[in-house]
Amino acid sequence: MSTATTHKWLTNCYNILERHVSNRQQQHHHHQQSLYFIHSHRRPMCKGCYLSMNGCTEGENSERTRESVRTIETRRLDKVSSAAMAMYSLKMAISELKEDSPFCTSSGIMRVEVPIEEQVEAIDWLHSQSHLLLPRCYFSGREQKSCSGKLISVAGVGSAVFFSQPQAFSYWDWISIRRFLSEKCPLIRAYGAIRFNAKPKVSSEWLDFGSFYFMIPQVEFNELEGGSMLTTTIAWDNALSWSWENAIAELQETLCNISSSIVKFPKQAPPTLILSSHNIPSKVDWDLGVNRALQMIERNDSSLTKVVLARSTRVVPTTNIDPLTWLACLKGEGENAYQFVIQPPNAPAFIGNTPEQLFHRKRLHITSEALAGTRARGSSLALDHQIELDLLTSPKDDNEFTIVRESIIRKLEAVCEKVIIKPKKVIRKLPRIQHLFARLTGRLRSEEDEFEILSSLHPSPAVCGFPTEEAQLLIAETEVFDRGMYAGPVGWFGGGESEFAVGIRSALVEKELGALIYAGTGIVEGSNPYLEWDELELKTSQFTKLLKLDLPLREKVDLSFK
Question: Any idea what DSSP says for residue 551?
């Protein structure tokens, strides 16, 4: 096929797809609005034929639902050899529970788990459930020292109970989640994410998530060091119009649709072309926004010292993007990074491969990190070392990093007996980029300070700026897209332990609509709009590189039609 013919063919494809995407977006917007109306109602929630319980209460007006649920229990069945055998064991156990109805309490949560001898990747199990329109989640912690039985990653489908509201995440929402958690059942966890900012108007692609979205999975697969585990969780609360009988019936329906056959899918994206790529803001608008921010920072009457401006890139490829395939491909880049998927029922999937920890709490012990300043990795050891020295000695990057680190120190000192910073400033190397890094540890005065820690650490200067209020105001005035949960807290609450990452290096994948890829950079005195744009390109490249395919004879065709 000649170059001219190829270009004509691609142009026709692009025009057809553009009309299709436009129609789909209109339908999608109307569909999401109607779903959100249902979703934001009180319990139960129904999307299609899926029913679940929204555990969020009415806050101060709901005395009955502030206390912990009456029953919290974990039951472990005998170890089996395979995932198929584990599914059989669970189905039999749930049938027996339905017959016996062992609990007379008005509220509770119960986890039933089956250890599996073989080690199976949780992401493979989740991919095998792609036929389901149930909510799903995936969370993989950063690599640490290996030890037998250590939890590596978690995948879940369906929600025993979910927590979501259109209003900002509050203390009472945190209490609503804590009701279902206990130290004696540490693996009952609520996985989810919180919006970067709950105040701006929510765009259609983020409607299903609410201001926050957490779920305790109904069916969960745990990938362990040297083994696996398949579990189910049943939650009920008569005060929320969701009985034990409701919970058991919905769980049995979900189990009937879960696939016991786990296929190890190829961890590589299929060859594809990007039909369109659109940045918000454009390069011209980005330069204007950065220069405006620099003028604000340099003003004598302004307290603003840093602001993080972000970009949203809509990419539409020739084939649908599978969010799990994308995430699996990023695992090679995910060394020492968190990986996550949060997807409400029949909604877009929020995925990410983030290196940044917001905080990790285990009882009273808490850790957090400062991460700022970015450079590419060098193509040789000598060049990599040279780039490292440039980052370490850069006054502009040191200023940006110091703002982030000192802000986190002050926030931890407000609720901790003592804060230790070690290391204070080193280079943290990732496969494609490197950052300035510091680790902070402290001891909380009370576990009840967890909500205060979460609400004070987010948004950090690393994703917002400093001071926070001034930076948020400038972001709201400058950015014309909805960040949604990009740069917000992503992670889990558990009994006695919780862990949250910062939702950067992330994307929102929408079926038939491509993906929105997000990236941001810190603007401080001395920032250059052109270099900051290059940093955005570097950060989004881990996603876009999965979509690029050269044309025959390596002849490039401009598919953006600018």
Answer: P
